[in-house]
Amino acid sequence: MTLTSFLLIGAFLFICGLACISIRRNALGILMGVELILNAANLNFVACARYLPNFALEGQIFALIVIVLAAGEAAIALAIILNFYNNHNTVDVDRADELKG
Amino acid sequence: MFSNLLRDCQLALPELILSGAIILFLLARLFSTVRRLQIVVPAVIGVAIALGISIDSWSEIASRSQLAFGGLLRFDGFGLFTRIFLLLATMVTLLTGLMTGIPDREDSADYVTLLLGSTVGLMFLASSHHLLMLFLSAEMASLPAYALTGFFKGKRKGSEAALKYVVYGSAASGVMLYGISLVCAVTASASFSELQRVIYIDRDNLNLNGLIGAVLIFVGLGFKLAIVPFHFWGPDAFEGAPAEVAGFLSVASKGAALAITARFLLALVGPYSFENAYINMIVTGIVLGFTGTLTATFGNLMALKQTNLKRLLAYSTIAHAGIMLLAMIPLQNRAMAPILYYLIGYLPANLGIFAAIALIRNHMNSEAISTLAGLGTRSPAIAAALTFFLLSLLGLPPLVGFITKFQIFVSIYEMGALTGGLDLLKIISISVLVIAGLNTAIGAGYYLKLIKYMYLHESPPEAPKIPLHLGYQIFFAILVGTVVGLGIMIDPVTKLTRLAANSLEVIWK
Hints:
The complex is a heterodimer. By secondary structure, chain A is mostly helical. Chain A is built from 3 helices and no strands. Chain B has one domain (2-502). In chain B, a hairpin with a 4-residue loop joins β1 (66-68) and β2.
């Protein structure tokens, strides 16, 4: 295994996440796609930390901070999605169509 | 080691004060005696202290750029200027909230905590010198902004705006993070000092990984700036958010995003003598020129047909972001001076307009353009102030909007005229100037339309007068005074912005 193979797995995860964001119409599904992208980046970071000696510490700290941030982001996003559900009785993003123009 | 930490903390004192204030306000809710106090007033005091310290440290920091916290942050005149700008914007937003009663006493602690939290994030964002700090502070600024957009839980439009903002926003920051991870894989470092090695392996070979990474980071920044084609969240978020919050998003969040975009691009291109600087200049010139003109033109054209005031201003914000992006085309330190001037002139005009919209909304319960009809006879003071603000955004002399646009055009022209023999740069600069000039003309279409509504249209029969207490007359008078004053005192302000922009001189290590 080299760094490149990990970067390829990361790229695959990233593309899965992007596809998930653009295809899913359920707000929670989109949030999962975002988590996939964050994890793709995290995989890259820890792989870099393993294979690039100069980046050993930085990469791990990057990954840890991203995990914490992902949790914070999910908390805010879930609260907003719940609030949307209370007002619209749905979490389908296509039904969020009152604002346009 | 310890003395270093102490010195760094001293440099970041304004941010620490705001963070302390946030913790205090969070704890304040625990005590029944203070729970029902209006927290906005102490928050204004906290911001004023941070502002005072920042202005006081000007002479020390502007003359000497330095890295702090192990190279995570960079304190220089540019960052300090942006920081003062952000604190002023927060101050005006808080005062507007005090005036319009958003937030009420019950909500004030939440509102203030979120607003200050976002401000701290933006301040760190503007001083970032490290990709980790860039991502962390961008998130720190965005998360409270998502919540502020949907601050009124029962509003259908507010909840929809917050949903769109948070979904697109988190997707964009995810993409940015992935870009950062690719860049790190190339340079084995996340410091801005190493960024210039990202795109080129050597003179002739592009590094594909690094290039994709840099582009993805630019996409994330572009989303924060709401440039086309990543603008779609902007109008929706602005229309659904309370006008006070929309003003903050359009001024503070744009300002910090511009500052970090400037830092990022300058770090990417590297010092001027670097062997690939010319190629980089042309590439970024085309990329920035294309996205900038597209953004400005699209924003202005879309603004023409809007009927909701906040939505119209959202498109106007997009157009202004486009112009500021164009100002970056020369990609040298001194080209960033007009941007700073532009920002500081944009602040009173735009926040003033949003404050007026919030006032009108309180009395007429609507934010349609038609609410402005007859405002010139009903509430002459507000109408006069709005006229000043709108004309400044349009760029009419002697208001500040004119000189800032003028300086940007001059700096783009100089790039084309002075590079000597590089025809491509000349073509870029001239075509950009023509399109930017046309855009100013399109902008006249909707700014003047609003003024026409205020003075030439009959007010609807049941439309109320909008009372303005003495304190808020002074508030609007100061904003108008700033718009006029900054437009007249060109030399001293230009000197400050030049000093700030020159401090961007790259520190290698």
